[in-house]
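Reminder to self: tokens first, then the designed residues, so the page reads top to bottom the way the pipeline ran.
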């Protein structure tokens, strides 16, 4: 592993802070400065009269960012004679807000019947907001993708031409077995997306009608970010409003948000992956299943592992999904 000058890691999942400890130990890079930003300050959706805690949560993250910038600035001055560029940092935060809001807008196109894109295709696009959401090229790509999807909706172009059942998912899929989605297509079933694909990088808010909509960016709100401190505050606020992390503190938050997605996107059922490969995204899945059943939404679960293909029993999973489709009155259109 090449020796880095600085190690900078965000910590959202249980293992993130440990990733580069392995790099340090295996490479004996104990002289490399290590910075880790703990992003798990709590939910942006505040309940139970805890509104006074939201500003504390923002400051917890914002202060970490400011402290890290100050230390990295010292390192850059000493080693390369360079200073931290606040102007570029501000632009990066604005671009991050745009990219993640655009991804939410892209997900909104899935409300159309027929859906213009299936979840399997979404996997090819959504992670750009994960690895490079501060790049202008990613925001530009998402604007172009959004225009293309709007055109597909206007012309009635379907991701699954035989669409007759619309489903919504939860956790990351079993990556080594994505033919699962092709199996569903045999029934005329389209997966519109999931809590994972919609929410891990898409940033949302509720409008005045209680509907889930893409969150407005600082530019859309007419706000001008001028200082490093303002940029860090916005970065913290934006990170806390990422829907994916809300349910880590209260499962009812996830229950309500997933129900919103299912109702607004006119889904017929939910297919929940009990994913042993990611505790964070699978957390509260059993509570979600019970909630959906109580809401009268048909739901089926299957077991797997996004990281280990050996923990996916394809014949068993497909038999389970086949039985669920039959219970829904959906007959198979074609055999494999």
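Designed residues (336 positions):
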């Amino acid at each position: 592993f090449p020796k880095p000058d600085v190690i900078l890691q965000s910590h959202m999942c249980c293992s993130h802070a440990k990733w580069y400890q392995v790099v340090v130990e295996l490479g004996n890079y104990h002289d490399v400065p290590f910075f880790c930003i703990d992003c798990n300050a709590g939910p942006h959706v505040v309940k139970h009269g805890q509104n006074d805690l939201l500003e504390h949560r923002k400051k917890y993250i914002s202060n970490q960012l400011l402290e890290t910038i100050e230390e990295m600035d010292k390192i850059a001055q000493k080693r390369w004679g360079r200073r931290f560029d606040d102007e570029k940092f501000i632009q990066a935060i604005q671009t991050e807000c745009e990219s993640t809001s655009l991804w939410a807008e892209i997900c909104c196109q899935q409300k159309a019947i027929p859906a213009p894109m299936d979840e399997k295709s979404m996997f090819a696009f959504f992670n750009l907001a994960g690895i490079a959401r501060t790049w202008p090229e990613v925001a530009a790509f998402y604007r172009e993708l959004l225009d293309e999807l709007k055109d597909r909706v206007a012309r009635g172009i379907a991701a699954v031409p035989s669409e007759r059942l619309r489903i919504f998912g939860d956790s990351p899929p079993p990556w080594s077995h994505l033919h699962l989605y092709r199996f569903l297509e045999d029934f005329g079933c389209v997966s519109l997306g999931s809590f994972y694909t919609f929410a891990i990088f898409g940033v949302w808010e509720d409008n005045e009608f209680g509907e889930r909509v893409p969150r407005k960016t600082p530019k859309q709100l007419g706000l001008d970010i001028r200082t490093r401190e303002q940029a860090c505050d916005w970065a913290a606020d934006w990170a806390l409003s990422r829907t994916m992390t809300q349910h880590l503190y209260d499962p009812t938050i996830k229950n309500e948000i997933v129900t919103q997605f299912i109702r607004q996107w006119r889904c017929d059922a939910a297919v929940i992956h009990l994913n042993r490969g990611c505790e964070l995204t699978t957390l509260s899945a059993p509570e979600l299943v019970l909630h959906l059943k109580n809401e009268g939404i048909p739901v089926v679960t299957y077991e797997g592992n996004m990281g280990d293909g050996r923990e996916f029993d394809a014949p068993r999973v497909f038999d389970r999904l086949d039985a669920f489709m039959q219970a829904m009155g959906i007959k198979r259109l074609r055999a494999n």
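Strands lie at 7-11, 34-38, 165-169, 189-194, 204-206, 212-214, 269-275, 299-304.
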